[in-house]
Each structure stands twice: as structure tokens, then as C-alpha cells.
Amino acid sequence: MSETIATSSASGGSAGASGSQRWWILAALSFTQLTLVLDSTVMNVALPSTQADLGFTDADRQWVITAYALAFGGLLLWGGRLSDTLGRKRVLLVAMGGFVGASLLGGVANGFAMLVVARALQGVFGALLAPATLSLLATTFTEASARGKAFGVFGAVSSSGSVVGLLLGGALTQYLDWRWCLLVNVVIGIAIIAAAAVLLPADERTRARTRPDTLGVLTSVLGVFAVVYGFSAAEHRSWTSPVTIGSIALGVALLALFVVIETRVSHPLLPMRVVLDRNRGGAYLMVAIAGVGMFGVFLFLTYNLQQVLGFTPLMTGVAFVPMIALLVIGAIGAGAVLPHTGPRVIVITGLVLTALGTTLFTGLTSDSGYAGGILPGLVITGAGFGLVFGPAMNLATYGTAPTESGAASAMVNAGQQLGAAVGTALLNTIAVSGAAGYRAGRPWTTDLATQATIHGNRVAFWVTAGVFAAGAVLCGLIIRPGRDLETTPAEKTPAPAA
Questions:
Q1: What residues have CB less than 8 Å from 369, skipping those under 6 apart?
Q2: What is the distance between the alpha carbons of residues 444 and 461, in angstroms, rounded to a whole number?
Q3: Which of 99, 433, 454, 468 could bridge 125 with an S-S bond, Cβ 3.0-4.6 Å?
Q4: 456 closest CA partner among 373, 362, 377
Q5: What is the pTM of this model?
Q6: How far apart, in whole angstroms, are the C-alpha atoms of residue 377 and residue 360?
Q7: What's the CATH class of domain 19-204+269-489?
């Protein structure tokens, strides 16, 4: 049975998808991914309005964001396994239906608890959607040239989704109501369900029955959950808090146990060969590194634009548009040249550009304007992110058997979520500490708080640039040189016998 699936995928990806139909499938899958990614940030700029409407406390407001991230990050591997065993189209349609329902629940929430439950449910169904979406793309586009272009577009959409979320959230909150930050998913989701039902070919009817990896599911879900929670707690408690240390330590221990389990069970949730391949392992690393830095850039520039330059939420979102444009151009360009150059030179160039662009932000002062101070760095980092995310999305699933593409897809999404959680908590702590150090011993003045914030952000930008530079070195050492992208995935890695 596995051999049959592999053959059909090698010969054209999703059976029944014609040449032109594949690009319509790409559009539907890209909108699905965009919906998932923008929901990680769309509520950020809406939080003050949401809090005023529902009346929850400052201590509670983090859970509107964290509930989504915890459920999404913790259940990704399980979601990847379900898409491999139950069928990708089936999982996508059911999960999108659930995502629409959860969004509707949040949009009509009459209190804090109802909103947080809705956000957690969005994360649960998002964890099912993300692996199914990426693995469908991987099995639809198999030829090197078309695959490079498709993953370039997909990578651009995925990596720009967070900025789109900020822009959309600002516009909806300012001109309609914060509830539309959730209700908009209902409209988009119904359209995606209709398109996917028509465009996507039916799942294979016969699949090998395998024993569920229950211990793998439990240790991976609880391990990722504990790590993400620990880093989220560090933002609001401290790095030395028992909750922070205990959560991260427990998460690491559970994930280590998960790796041991996966090497011993007959049908693992995550076959180790998926992550031990140098190119795929490098892809997961580069996505995590990019997640660390990208969310750091978003966080500190957002505060700089609003607190220092006085931008409104909508103006803040618009300010990131040049970054989105260069990111899209970079990702699509990277996808086009990837078959000819191989991934290593593109990825190293991208990470060097992001390091350079982030370094420019360290020169920001209270007198720096948008055009002369922020825009040059946005343009350079945007191009760099595009060169990273396009190849990363491609390599993350390349060479995997179709029966393992869900697990590979889940890993790249998990890497991005963990990178974002680590980056937000680590860099925010560094910025706060830098600001506190600047204020210490200085007499109070009217602009001391602003200068301290700028100094703290400057320190965090230097650390972010260092992360990108280290990532360029590490990915350069891990990713194999040369092209080696000419054979189809199923030919490179035969599907294991059931």
C-alpha cells in the first residue's frame, strides 16, 4: 500500500491535479496558511479594545495570545500524524470547519473565559490544519522547477502572515470592532472549505492500519506544551521563576523521552530519519532561527513606532508593508533559482541580510524618523527573510515519503512556533533588563523612559543580529552543498513498508 502511495505522488503529486489546477490548489493552501499565521498576531493590536470591552485584567490579557500558541505548538506533531493516517484532504476540511466554529465562538464571546476557550480551540484545529496544508503542497508539487516556485509563494505567504495579522488587526479594530479580528476567519474559512472540496483530489481509500504511538503523542504534546509555556511565563514572571525553570526543564525532559520512544516503536509519530537528514534538519533550524529574530523585530519595532513615533495601530501595520513586499519578492525569487543554485548559498545570503538589516535598527534614536531610520532596515530584513523561508518550506518536506510528509510538515511549523516563543520571551527579557540598567543611577527626566526603552531595544537588536549571524554559520555547516534537488521526493526516500 505504501509503495502505491509513493508511486502516485512521484508521478504527479496529488492524483488528479492537472497542471493549471495545481496552481489553484496552491492559492487555496496559501490562504489556509495565511489564516493560521496571521491569527498568531491579529489579536495583538486589538487587545486594548478587547480588554476594555470584556473587562479582564492586565495579568490575564496574555492568555488571549498564549492560549492559541500553546494549543497550536503542542499538538502539531499529533496533527501531522493524523493527516498521514486519516487523509490530508479529510483532515483539512474537518479542521477548517472546526477553526471556523472556534473563530465564531470567539467573535461572539461574552467574557474572558469564553474568549480564551475559543482561542485555544483555534490552536487545536490550527495544529491539524498546518501539517495537512504543507504536506498537501508537498505531494501536489514534485517536479523541481514547479516545486521551487510553489514553495517560494507558500514561504512568502507563511512568513509575511504575522505582519499581515498586525495590519489586518489594526484596520479591523480601528474601523469595525475587535470581534471582526476573529469573525473574518468565518468568511475566509468557508471560502477555503468550498475551494478545497472542489480542487483537492480525494484521499487514498486504503491505508495500512498501524498501531498508534500513544506514548509518542503524550510526550511530544506535553513536552512542546511545557517548553512553550515556560518561555511564555518568562515574559511575565522572570527567568529565575520556579514556574519558568520547572516548565522548561520538564519540557526538555519529556522531549528527550519522546526521542528515545521514537527510536524504539515500530510506527513512530516522528520517524527519526525525517529530522536526521542534513537538509531537512537545516530547514527546521533555519525556520526556528528566523522565528526567533522575526518576532523580535516585530515586537520592538511595533513599540518604537507607536511609543516613540506616535503611530496608530493601523499606521504601524502599514509601516511593515515594505518588509512584506521585499519578503514576497525574496521568497519567490529564491524558489525560482533554488533548483539551479541549491539551498545553501541562498539561505546563508538570507541570514546575512537579516543580520545586516537588524544591525541598522541598533542605530535608532528618539530623533530617527521612519523613512531614514526604520525603512532601510525593514527592506533589507524583508529580503533576507524571503530568502530563508522559501527554501526552508521546500527542504522541510523534500525527500520524505508521502506517508511521512505530515510529520515533516508538523516539524517545520513546530520549529517556527518554538522559535517565536523563545525569541519573544528571550529578547523581551533582554530589552527590559537593558532599559532597567539604563535607568539605574540616572536622575529622572521627562524623556528618561523613552531613552531607556530605546536603549533596551538597541541591546535586543544587537542580540537578534547575533542570532542571525550564528544561524548563517550553523546552516552553512549543516545544509549540504550543491543542488541535489532533481529527483522527486518519493524516488529519494521510498515509503516504508506498512
A1: 309
A2: 25
A3: 99
A4: 362
A5: 0.74
A6: 6
A7: mainly alpha
